[in-house]
Amino acid sequence: MKSPDELRQKLVESWNKAGIRSKQLLNAAAWPWELKIGKPSPRCFNTRISTVQSHVEAWRQVRVGKVEWIDASYRNGAESIRVPSKWCLRTPSEWVSATQDKGIAEEYEAMGYLVERVPDHFHKLVVIQRGLWKGRDRSEIIQAAIVASQLTPGCARGLPLRLLSGYGVDTKFFERNEVLLRKMLDVLFEDEASEQSLCGFLDAYDESNHWVLIMPLEAGLLQYQRLKLTTSELGRVELPGERLLIVENEKCFHQLIDLPGTIAILGCGLDLAWLGSEALRNKAAGYWGDMDSWGMQMLARARAKHGGITSLLMNEAIFDKYRGESAVPEPVRAQEIPPAGLTDSESALFRRLVESAKGRLEQEFIPHPEVHQALMRWVEDTRTFQSLRDA
Fold it and tell me: 358: left (phi > 0), else alpha (psi -120 to 50), else beta?
């Protein structure tokens, strides 16, 4: 025979098992839920009658659910006695009340609040994976469910997650809710978000562990002609040479030429935090990116990390020279106003690009001779600056 406390403990253990919790909370056919109490054994009745009496009295005090009673006869008893047989819980709320557990009651209340407000397809996730929402702002969970329902594979189109617009969330939203959003998208797209990572699934620019191409532009500076590093590694290593050439797009490697003491780092995009490394602080650094709002934003970010950044081939003269044949519309702008960190002339170019119907001139469309001349001038300028500084 089981006491009320023993069955309460069983109910608590059942609540903490995701499979049982899901079955009981999401399946109307699971109710009522009957728990067997078991009648006293003949030996117990004969040798521990006071225990049996206490057992019966304890079940008479139970006010949650319905206790079913039966008549039990024993050889040594003058007449049959009424003993509890089953404890019948009719609803989830009775289950929660029966546990007499404050934590479970709070979880149930929060779970019910969320289930009423998130789309049906996320109900099972809310019930099974409590760790996704416990202790968190409920409005944020609901907002994540709304956003996840709007996201589709590849919808980021190369943008960093924090820059996705149109979802009514702040720039830190995706960072705060990365796991929750991934799990919600797994529900909608059969675990693909976890298979590919959230950034991979949405085709978003991954700023946390990004691979870039490293190319020495002078023979012998590095052991390899080309190698790949993550930007997290790049921020820890000491690179040889006096100059760094940061190039937005990796595919522009074929436009580069031999330059003394220079290492090119291609394909960084917006992932430029590594430029703030102490090991790189004394190197001359040049930045060459697309002339559009994104490229100018990347330039500003690079300069914020490394104060000695020189922009290359990103000015109005170059834009005017080649925009006629090569400029195209920019489908999604990074922002509408110049980012902090641009010079006055760069800010003027930014505004012009944003206001232009064709405000995007990609690196690849700058002729090779123009690129080569700009790179050689930059090397000479850095040599002159170095000479003046050392004098």
Answer: beta
CA-wise closest residue to 286 among 376, 167, 152, 185: 376
- Whether 95 and 107 have beta carbons less than 8 Å apart is answered as no
Tens digits of residue pLDDT in 43-72: 776 667 788 888 889 999 999 999 999 888
Pairing of strands 262-266, 243-247: parallel
Amino acid 2 reads: K
pTM across the whole model? 0.56
Structure tokens that stand for 378 in this block: 């930059």
Name which of 129, 233, 246 is nearest 180 in CA terms: 129
Q: Tell me the domain boundaries of the chain.
A: 4-100, 106-202, 211-390
Taking the CA atoms of residue 170, residue 176, residue 178 and residue 181 in that order, the dihedral angle to the nearest 10 degrees is -70
Q: Give strand ranges (E) for the chain.
A: 33-36, 66-72, 81-89, 211-216, 227-230, 243-247, 262-266, 284-288, 309-311
Q: pLDDT above 90 covers what percent of the chain?
A: 64
